[in-house]
## 1
Amino acid sequence: MKNYENVTIFNHPLISHKVAILRDEKTSMKEFRELVEEITTLMTFECLREGVPTVAKEVKTPLETCTQYVVKDNAIAIVPILRAGLGMVNGVHVLFPSARVGHIGLYRNEETLEPCEYYCKLPEGIEDKLVLVVDPMLATGGSACDAIAMLKKRGCKTIKFMAVIGAPEGVSRVAEAHPDVHIYVSTLDRCLNENGYILPGLGDAGDRLFGTK
């Protein structure tokens, strides 16, 4: 895969350690869910290093008063792509507990592998927020591209996308379709198989999060 200015692939030993456990077919549903949240929190810290709206605030310490910058109220929205994206929401809320949450529902056509929309509910004023679109798996990139396009259509101007595992095909597709959106992926895998699943991957993230396999 070629290098894209709007793509960040993490190379962090703590994330790598957690992804190794996440991949294991013996990992329980409870542990899988906790790991997805933990990885998301680590990624969010880096993802929001830049671009977060802040305001100055006067703070009185035990010794004196100082000016400190804090995150602007109601400035961030989380938009998980249903259903697997739900597993990443709490990981962001650890750092931004007041972030509003919208939902975009897309399912994959098993024949064409393309996404089909079935639900969209977004917080009021989302067009003025920094929007974090989250989905554990960036496979073909179809769902991510469509979700981002839906947000842009509704006026969103500052969008970031986060995935735990990405395939080169999906990362490239989103990076080229939306060069103004920064993409953060914890781990870049080898390729997609003939059914559009990431290899080596970790199976179906939604099934493993919610115990439906």
## 2
Amino acid sequence: MADFYPLKVKHIKPLTPSSVAITFEVPKGLIQTFTFIPGQYITIKKEIKGKELRRAYSISSSIKSDGLTIGVKKVDKGGFSDYANTKLGVGDVLEVMPPEGRFVFNTTAKPTHIAAFAAGSGITPIMSIVRAVLDGHPKNKFVLVYGNKSYEETMFYTELVKLQLDYTDRFFIHFINSRSREDDSLFGRIDLSTVNYVLKNKHKSTVFDAFYLCGPETMIHLVKDGLIEQGIDASTIHFELFTTTEILDELPVGAEGRAQVEVTVDDETFSFAMDKKTLVLDAVLKENIDAPYSCQGGVCSSCIARITEGKAEMVKNQILTDGEIADGLILTCQARPLTPTLKVDYDDV
């Protein structure tokens, strides 16, 4: 389940002073394995200073591309994003997990109008979705609101401007800069007034079929609440969190005692005892069980498993719906046992 494949770096392109676009070459024998739905991400595994790091990065390339491109913004010193921006070279090989994720756009046969709100590196999955929408139907429209500090810090700025020129009557972009006043951009940050500006002013005659939000958690909640206040159906609002720092929030105190845990991965079953205050994924990894995971912060979907016996609670959840939780699904990186016995199945998802 957690298989990684060696992919060679085909091209590296600077996007901003602190970010690069990395394109991987996908061998013919792995084309099917790395076929993706616009909006999905890949997980990269790399050992740095003797420590294995796993990081999830959204795919920004078109589904029609012969390579796989991601955007990596430098947010850590000595971590993978630092390595990718300063040391990674063309021809280097990285271990990559096949695409996954639920923040996706599926092309339909009828005309579709999409609006997206992105900030910073949250643009990366949106790039793939934009291209899929514009290529999907000659009457499709896409409105993008994209916030950054300045044009200099705007990832994929050149590509977005080119798309705007190529699809003048179908692709509309509103740049917002918070640190500099520049031509053809709004000043400030994405907020409720921005939502009103798009829905009630610039594009009031457009009925949007879906909304895609990607960026910091505060921005996503603000925009989502603003859309719902405007009468938008919550089921049409899709979002994905992009964090720029490690998850450092203090976890609330968990239940006392220990739990006997049974974990199924790739048709193998493992049993061990764990402290109920410990997160399930942490305990699984401590037992050297090769379970799938990536962000370990509750903002991707790599570590989803199904509870087949017992109960667990999640500290944080921005991925699973109420229905999926009722169906037994959990994010193991955020879950702790509540019962003396807990059985989870990574295969049954």
